[in-house]
Amino acid sequence: MELSNKKNVEHQNSQFLEAWVEQFRPYAKEGNCANYIPALELKNPNELAISIIGSDGIEMKAGDTTNTFTLQSVSKVVAFISACMDRGMSYVLERVDVEPTGDTYNSIVRLESHEPGKPFNPMINAGAITVSSMISGNSSQEKLDTIIKLLEKMVGKKLIVNEEVYKSEWETANRNRAIAYFLMDSGYLDCEVEEALEVYLKQCAIEVDVSDLAMIGLVIGNDGYHPILKKQLFSKEVAKLTKALMVTCGMYNFSGKFAAFIGLPAKSGVSGAILAAVPSHASVHSPFPTGCGIGIYGPAIDEIGNSVAGVPLLKHIATEWNMNIF
Amino acid sequence: MELSNKKNVEHQNSQFLEAWVEQFRPYAKEGNCANYIPALELKNPNELAISIIGSDGIEMKAGDTTNTFTLQSVSKVVAFISACMDRGMSYVLERVDVEPTGDTYNSIVRLESHEPGKPFNPMINAGAITVSSMISGNSSQEKLDTIIKLLEKMVGKKLIVNEEVYKSEWETANRNRAIAYFLMDSGYLDCEVEEALEVYLKQCAIEVDVSDLAMIGLVIGNDGYHPILKKQLFSKEVAKLTKALMVTCGMYNFSGKFAAFIGLPAKSGVSGAILAAVPSHASVHSPFPTGCGIGIYGPAIDEIGNSVAGVPLLKHIATEWNMNIF
Amino acid sequence: MELSNKKNVEHQNSQFLEAWVEQFRPYAKEGNCANYIPALELKNPNELAISIIGSDGIEMKAGDTTNTFTLQSVSKVVAFISACMDRGMSYVLERVDVEPTGDTYNSIVRLESHEPGKPFNPMINAGAITVSSMISGNSSQEKLDTIIKLLEKMVGKKLIVNEEVYKSEWETANRNRAIAYFLMDSGYLDCEVEEALEVYLKQCAIEVDVSDLAMIGLVIGNDGYHPILKKQLFSKEVAKLTKALMVTCGMYNFSGKFAAFIGLPAKSGVSGAILAAVPSHASVHSPFPTGCGIGIYGPAIDEIGNSVAGVPLLKHIATEWNMNIF
Amino acid sequence: MELSNKKNVEHQNSQFLEAWVEQFRPYAKEGNCANYIPALELKNPNELAISIIGSDGIEMKAGDTTNTFTLQSVSKVVAFISACMDRGMSYVLERVDVEPTGDTYNSIVRLESHEPGKPFNPMINAGAITVSSMISGNSSQEKLDTIIKLLEKMVGKKLIVNEEVYKSEWETANRNRAIAYFLMDSGYLDCEVEEALEVYLKQCAIEVDVSDLAMIGLVIGNDGYHPILKKQLFSKEVAKLTKALMVTCGMYNFSGKFAAFIGLPAKSGVSGAILAAVPSHASVHSPFPTGCGIGIYGPAIDEIGNSVAGVPLLKHIATEWNMNIF
User: Fold this and answer.
1) Domain CATH code at residue B166
2) Which residue of chain A comes nearest to B119, CA vs CA?
3) Average pLDDT, chain B
4) How close A215 comes to chain D (CA, Å)?
5) Which residues are listed for substrate binding in this entry (chains A, B, C, D) (predicted)?
6) Do residues B114 and A102 lie in contact, with contact meaning Cβ atoms separated by under 8 Å?
7) Based on the domain organization, do A150 and A213 belong to the same domain?
8) Following CA atoms C158, C162, C167, C172 in sequence, which dihedral angle do they give, to the nearest 10 degrees?
9) Structure ipTM
10) Domain containing residue C312
11) Average pLDDT over residues D72-97
12) Distance of CA D147 to CAs D129, D193, D204, Å?
């Protein structure tokens, strides 16, 4: 393809993206901003933004892309990678299983009924709190720094915790505290309850924008290799395990349907964030033939916890641009 | 690559495959033939066989490949495809969900607790019985013929039901009958209980060999396109949905770990059968760069229901030959 | 107390009873006749009747006492006594536990999760079907005859099965069939599924009136001794065990509240029947100082399955007349 | 009965009691002292003691009656009575149900699945923690004092908290803390988590002997009336509700069997304590014809949490001396 032609196509694709954002923005009406965290409830539910960054570093974005928001459950992916890097995969997997459950994200039931206390996977709260307790560091601050350092390498800029959101979550964290004490009782926490919870709730409150999400997705999609830094940040094995977890458990108890109809490794958060990691082989016939990362933000979420405008937008893009791992 | 060189490589790969079968054959000692079906219990637990068929039709096989065995739960994949072809995906998905559960294959618990009676996915018995009830046909025989016809197109030869295995399963089908009556009670059966059960148990008893399995996997891997017949047998959408289901739910409550460590759409049966569908994009750097189907038979199974020699054999091949969808 | 005075008091109490029936009759509006059995749905929801029979054989009754109705779950009590007489208590209790569950009457969940397949108690459907399978007799008819014979001794007249109700239940028995096949699968049925179901559904369809219920309650309350026949029909141990079961499990998942606020051994059925067995020591300060049986009929039931007018009527009587085992 | 004759009978009964204690003492070998609390684990498992106090104040005792021990779950009964006195029965019952569950005492499952967060009954930990949060008082100390004051009125002497046991339980209270935070999350705690837990764990650690237990049982059995003080300590309604709860839920998930085979309102604790409340009408033909309270201590417990020597001793006495509410 000639350069000018390539530019034309890129321009056209950008226009498509803009149009699609406007097409799916009205879907926000079907959902609401997460209301159990005051700082999230105040967001504008009609916002919708997307960024896609290819392995060549070229970014395509559309919508309200200057907005920032907190990672929430998207942070589970990064914390899991961090724990695997720090402790080794086998250590981590002795303490958290990798099976999907079909339960809601804050369910405590299976902790009692199956291999008592062992959390089913790192993408539900129970597993994520166990993961946070395993991160390197002798205090919650050190553990958090470990996660943030990895994140900053991925996104290429400084990141901070949104203290207001963190405080707001800390004050309403009774269910998570119940889960953490249950884990402690069964021996599945590697540090004190309050330390693990502080790490977990602070990682959830890290502030990002859609471009940051797309960068995280890009590195995971690329099997841990950062195509712009030209550096392997974590092993291919950890990356593949992470993508498998995103497919089987990443979208709460919508994961099965997401895999079935969208077919990309993804993780959502109740802030309305969605992260998708697209390996090169899953996007050969797309505008990003060597893989890409996708970041979406649409704060109105459904009862399951996924962005009501973001999911259909991602589905539309994946279908139109032939991105699918299956 | 020159032709003679290609031949050499093929020969070498064949030798690898033979060696790997012998390497993993001893794993059979860790399991047992399914003992709830007398006809299965009499099988030789030490047998192990594999066939891999590429999109060019070239087959590589090793081990006890002349053995035949029954499809058992592998049939759930084909019946699901058949129901989608007959009724349309949306009709099918109104009656069976596509969420993984983490429960055992014959669990009845979720039928009571979540959206009462709707089975969680077509890869567990509850969902599979619902699927069988939806197949085209006015009798169990007609429904079964619909499934067999599709299967015969895939494998290119006549197939029969092993009547001894079928009778043996029919007589011990109390748990499945309990599930079926529960489904009937909640309105999730499209025909009479006994008709649905007869279809389900007969489809489980269809006799195949590893080459047949590989052919089925090849067509699914190729998005429904039969590369030898050069014919689209079912739609790309159905194929992708099926592969997603295989990844999230295909290996019973080992599915999460299978996705994490093997990373291929697969489905197992208690006969010791494993079917894997490898899309071209997941095998670019393998000896089968345009995709392949894999059939494995190792009748000694673990407590979850998967072949104890077959799973590590498949894992070894997938790792050595770079086959992975993630 | 002089005879004439005694007559006066009896007359006064009878008038109270009439007044109370009218007082609680309007409660029927809060419920509905069981709608899953067509023959029950056609009943007049506003009917309410009561009979109380003392150990001296004197009966006090009020309301629509000429109505007949089917025993439904009240039959579980008699079938349990019959099985204990036929097989011995220890044989029966090896096959059915006596723990309350807090689950609904037709729940199947615990069959899977606790000591797989052993029903929790004889007052829920799973336990009752197991009990029916243990009754003496080589056919469903013989087993049923065993139960009816015991019942007829208690009530002193011939009883018949309401064939219309039975047929209606047989046709809609899918959930019970699911339970029965589950029990068969786990080895907790003493005869074939269809035989056990036929016994169970026919015993549920035995036609009685409130005086019959009161007679059954009288004998159970009297520790198995029939005060009019002056004959011990079954052992004191079986009677006490039965009353304990009625208290802990007799009113479905309202049993705890019934024990707490009414405090009498009782069993209800979805036909709107309630049977209460009042031991002499629990009614010393009542108009029936040597014990009594109470039969109530009010076909409008609540979501749990208890008569919405019958329960408060019984509560009122128990409170006013000082009947309480606690 | 002549006085001398009465004395003779009393003497003989005392001798029976001594003999029965020795007869059942060896049963202790089947159990172990609770091992999750170090201070309990150090107890001598072979100890067995009983006290029975009649409404006339006469006590009969046998075995190691000088031993003291902590109330543990027996305190749930007194705390429940105290909450009902302080808040009224209807206030209490809006926050805790009175249904038996069949689950273990520290189960958290039903908090998630049924009317989310509302504990099923006050005799399991979840319900007991809710009850403790409702006791009168503006601090944990004030709430505890309320309970102790009621207890002291019942037993007629000063009582203290065993600080060593309390500390030991506080340090291992993760599972209870998990339950308490879950309750807080669903709005079923009336004070802060740590305050409720402190009350709950301290009430569990109140030190008593078998005579104290018998006195508590006597007052409850007598419908709240203290026959020695000649004073109504709490209402008859609260007493009857409490006895009903003891029968349906008092012996953990052995309650159904205990009601079936022993037939007395009772409550056990993991310290090996058992409290039984015998109403006069349930003991007319016993050596305590106007009712009694029974206290038992046998620290070796079974897997469910009940004293392995104490339960059969109580069963033997209840049978031999005709004590039974049914």
Assistant:
1) 3.40.710.10
2) A102
3) 94
4) 36
5) 73, 125, 169, 176, 200, 252, 270
6) yes
7) no
8) -110
9) 0.94
10) 3-72+207-320
11) 97
12) 14, 18, 11
